[in-house]
């Protein structure tokens, strides 16, 4: 083929004729106007490419030059990923949550309190079923750990599902100290939430009783429920008080950690570790005991337990023991643990105004 293009080159080599386009071979920039001027149409380029492929098995022809692509400006450095808030930020979050809780309308508050009581009771149900004979196989220590992990279900449901729990709401005191919540609002919230947590726990007691699941494992689940109730209802008053303090210190820390976490999995882990610790250690939770002890009281005389239950246990488990030996001291202890060791402690560490601190020092209270 005779090619009149000034950029077409061909010569004879040992292997035969070599044909090529100089523009393409040396990668020279071209534009559409120039190609049109020299007669390098799309059809002509296709023809040249065919000739090169026929002679040397391949080749290249000029491509239309594209306008230079503007390079994007360098991206700003990405902000570091925050996996959890630092304690000072959590303290502010707790105050904000306290404001919202204090402003919750009573119908919503009571409904959410019923749900929280039921959720904690469901965690207690799972704890009772899982541990009914577990110690026989893995020993006391490991069974306590697994039981604590099972019981964590309750607070996970409260935090992630959304509900109002008396022990967790002890943190509202941080809002009161920050002057965002009044003492009257705090007491009102505690009263209604505590009362309806009891209602929610009793709903689960009723449902679980009529489910008949406590008959499982030849009555071992029922036996476990009664023995748990007896051990709690016969605690010395002082022991119940201090177990209540230690319990809600950990429970409120679990709530605190859940506020720090930024995703559901982190929240669950933050909840489970302190809750597993308090259950494994044998501390006392007032709302959980609103399920544990009434459930034992209802089951103590059932025929399923004939021959299995120590008569002294059945006689020693009473409603009076539930209220005065357990619920009263444990509730007081829970208040001390949550209010003093978490709400007041962290507010004092991170949110207390400097002037307030100076005033305390001047008054000799430091």
Could you please describe the fold and organization of this structure?
There is one protein chain. The chain is mainly alpha-helical and 366 residues long. The chain has two domains: 8-56, no CATH class; 87-362, Up-down Bundle (Glycerol uptake facilitator protein). The chain is 68% helix and 3% strand. It is built from 17 helices and two strands. The protein has helices spanning 22-25, 32-37, 42-56, 87-102, 106-130, 134-138, 140-151, 153-161, 172-177, 183-211, 216-233, 237-260, 264-281, 286-299, 311-316, 319-350, 354-362; strands spanning 8-13, 16-21. Strands 1-2 form a two-stranded antiparallel sheet. The longest helix has 32 residues, at 319-350.
Specify the CATH homologous superfamily of the largest domain.
Answer: Glycerol uptake facilitator protein
Average pLDDT, to the nearest integer?
Answer: 88
Question: Based on helices, strands and strand pairing, what is the structural class?
Answer: mainly alpha
Give me the strand/helix succession. Answer: EEHHHHHHHHHHHHHHHHH
Helix fraction bin: 55-70%
**Radius of gyration, in angstroms, nearest whole number:** 38 Å
Global geometry: elongated
Which blocks of ≥5 consecutive residues have pLDDT under 50? none
User: How large is the share of residues in beta strands?
Assistant: under 5%
CATH class of the largest domain: Mainly Alpha
Q: How far is it from the N-terminal to the C-terminal residue, by CA?
A: 103 Å
CATH architecture label of the largest domain: Up-down Bundle
